[in-house]
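As a warm-up, study this chain.
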Amino acid sequence: MSNADPSQETEAPANLSRSRRLAFAEQELRLISSLVLLIGLGLFFALPFVLSIGAVVFLPVVTALVLTVILSPLADKLNGWGLPNALASLTALLFFFAILLLALALILQPAVALFDDVPAMANRVMARFGELREQFAWIATINAQLAALMNSDGTREVVLAAPSLLEQVAFATPSLVLETVLTLLMAYFMIEARVRLRQRLLFGRASFGTSIKAARVIREVQDRVAAYILTVGWINALVGVVVALGAWALGVDAPIMWGGLAAMLNFLPYVGPIVMIALLGLFGIGTADTVVLGLVPAIAYLALHTVEANLITPSVLGARFTMNPVMILIALSYFTWIWGVFGALLSVPILLMLTALFDHIGRANLVGFIFGEPLFASGIFEDEAAPQPPST
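Now compare it with the structure written out below.
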């Protein structure tokens, strides 16, 4: 007679069936994850063309959304002090607009005064580069010999007539004014409707856990972006003050303009300081007596930026706002490609919003997915495939 336990004989086919179901579910999930990944890549590469073509529509909406996230804490504070919601929203928006106009006035007004000196400055810069070119005349000789060997003497240069700067400004002003008005109006209505939006997101969910998660996502995105902009704004303002004082000490014309320009360009990571160094270098070479003296303002700003970027900003912001430099550069190039300078200014806040959002909903494991791991860490199969304790 056989001593086999009947319960073990029935348990083996059940375990085999459960393993097959888990394997089939894992394959199905991987197939769905592959489709999601392909759709996401397609949207990533197709979205710039849609957003750039419809920039008149999408740029004011995205800008208003970023302004809403930044100014909502200020509106909440004003509302807590007793101001009505509509008045608090309007005050927060007007406060931001006043700061923006003040920053532009600090830069544009001295720039207009220096505009008359630009031709003479350009002539001096060309003279300096001419002196340097004479010192490296052997390079020009080698280029001429290479051009002769490649039979490029008969080439013709075609110059296309382009509109002047005043014509470009005249054509761009009506569109810029219209988009600015639309952006401010949308930002006001979004800020004013923030309380109703929060209540709808919190109390309109089917489960209490979903409401709590939605509240955490909204608060995290708002706090992270607003705190980052506020902290970086104070740091950049101090950088602008130091640059203005340094320009005044070095005898550079319009020190307030250079301080305001340094503060605004410092909002663009990596790219803004490079542009500032180039501007200071060209201006210094065009106004100083020698090339070495002309490079002093640029070298001084480079030293200041090195201390600020590597010591002050990391210690003030901390690990909470630390972002991958590669992701920052990708966001800068991506949104600059779509919307130009405005896209570059919006790239870091958008990246912060997406980072805070993905911290709650989970980040895709792209590298692990290539080697067979799940696209999103869920632990479903590990939990279900774990051996069950024997029943008593």
